[in-house]
Amino acid sequence: MPEWNLVAWTILLVAYAGSGDLQEADRVFRSMQERDLVAWNGILSASATAGHFARVQNIFQSMPERDLVSWNCMLAAYSRDTNMQDLERIFRTMPAWNMVSWATMLAAYSQTGDLLSCKCKAKHLYDSMPVQSVASATLMVAAYSHCGNVEAARWVFEEWSGRGLVLSTAMLRAYSGYGSVEAARKIFEAMQDCDVILWNSMILAYAQNGRLPEAMGLFRLMNLGGRAPDESSFVTIIAGCSHFGVIDDGKRFFLSLQQDFHLQASKILYSAMVDLLQRGGYLADAQELLAKLPL
User: Fold this and answer.
1) What is the b/e burial string over 55-94, where b = at least 16 CB atoms within 10 angstroms of the residue's CB?
2) In terms of domains, do 227 and 295 share one?
3) 207 and which of 48, 131, 240, 279 could share a cystine (Cβ 3.0–4.6 Å)?
């Protein structure tokens, strides 16, 4: 390019920022003779994604102008790196909100350790949203589940007729986490087209509630139904076999991973298999497999 203009520099900056290369994004940003709002938001987003909280604050304060994208970047940074009081202060300070803003706050409430505060504030925020969506309902279900209020999660879930896979998976996990396996199974069976995540969630629901035979049966049914298991499927079922001491079945599942599905075992899968072998007393086999662990 014979002459680099603002648009060209900004495209390069945003590309580096989007790929997570903060060092190159920062180099481009410093080389720019002029910067528009898109460039400022690009370096702000890259710094937030990299977890440089102090840098995010400095950039935000230095910006000659800000838009909703800028504020949402700041909100996302605060949601990861500070307490809820500061996050709420930023949210109240914002000149406007969109679905990203609301979703960031709901996600933060769903992950806080203050269960009573989580339930009350998340509910107030959800009710205050000008437009609710399946995405916000999913976050609300997760928030109630985290607080231990499965009935409230169910109430939010049942408000929506076109629930879709994501919301259904969140509710299935909520039921599973509190031992309501039959309720989780009803959600699973109600879905006409289950993706691998929903299958894995139901397999996990059985496994973590002491019903390994049903988890293993569902794993096999998943493949027969035309939905190939993925890495998470194998990690879940092998971990279940390890927990219940079903060593031979765990070995068969691990062999099936490569022989039947042509999947490469990851570090997580190797770790699950090493744990299974150690629990079964196969220490030499565990050491041999540990030597093959991907770096």
Assistant:
1) bbeebbeebeebebbbbbbbbbbbbebeebeebbebbeeb
2) yes
3) 240
